[in-house]
DNA sequence: CCCTGATTCGC
DNA sequence: GCGAATCAGG
């Protein structure tokens, strides 16, 4: 993929809005977050409006990439809890706070036209989860241990919120059913060719 | 551990 | 110019 005018524009726009490089890369498609960051730099729009993130001193002595005796570890399976099923219309992506000024409520129509689902959750797994949620122990956050399923259920904004609490799978943060929905999808992850 | 952006440098 | 590899902070 090449940096066409439109792609660059979208890049600028999203970067300006405080989107992360990885998100921009995902949105554009065909590029990695590194490519995005590289482009951002080349475009000269490095830092965003002084967001209180991390300040780079700029000139830091490094120099050492000459040789790379780095014993790199193998990538793992990232996998994060996938979005819950349908019910809450508030499942939106707001990764960064951005400027306090632009806090406009979502319009009325369809602010999100082309939303290709990041990942699909098998209907089967969902059904399973629904069943499990009925048997959930409804434990609070303080009751979570290494052995309890940490799958959140309900709306954190209300009292209808608890954790599954069923016995989690060894080495996993969730019970079997929730491991299913949490780790199932996640198909593509950029290659790390060497 | 995951994620961020930043930098370097071979292409 | 491009972006993977790498670095460095959170």
UniProtKB/TrEMBL annotation:
Pfam families: GcrA. Residues 55-68 have a biased composition (Low complexity). Gene3D superfamilies: Homeodomain-like. Residues 46-119 are annotated as: Disordered. This is GcrA cell cycle regulator. It comes from Celeribacter neptunius. The lineage of its organism: Bacteria, Pseudomonadati, Pseudomonadota, Alphaproteobacteria, Rhodobacterales.
């Amino acid at each position: 993929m090449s940096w066409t005018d439109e792609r660059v524009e979208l890049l600028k726009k999203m970067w300006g809005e405080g989107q992360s490089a990885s998100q921009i890369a995902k949105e554009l498609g065909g590029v990695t977050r590194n490519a995005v960051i590289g482009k951002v730099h080349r475009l000269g729009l490095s830092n965003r409006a002084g967001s209180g993130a991390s300040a780079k001193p700029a000139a830091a002595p490094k120099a050492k990439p000459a040789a790379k005796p780095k014993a790199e570890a193998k990538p793992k399976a990232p996998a994060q809890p996938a979005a819950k099923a349908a019910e809450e219309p508030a499942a939106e992506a707001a990764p960064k706070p951005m400027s306090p000024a632009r806090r406009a409520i979502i319009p009325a129509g369809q602010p999100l036209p082309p939303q290709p689902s990041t990942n699909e959750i098998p209907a089967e797994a969902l059904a399973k989860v629904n069943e499990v949620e009925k048997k959930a122990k409804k434990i609070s956050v303080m009751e979570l241990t290494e052995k309890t399923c940490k799958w959140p259920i309900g709306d954190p904004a209300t009292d209808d919120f608890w954790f599954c609490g069923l016995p989690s799978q060894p080495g996993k943060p969730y019970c079997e059913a929730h491991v299913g929905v949490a780790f199932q999808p996640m198909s593509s992850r950029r290659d790390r060719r060497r």
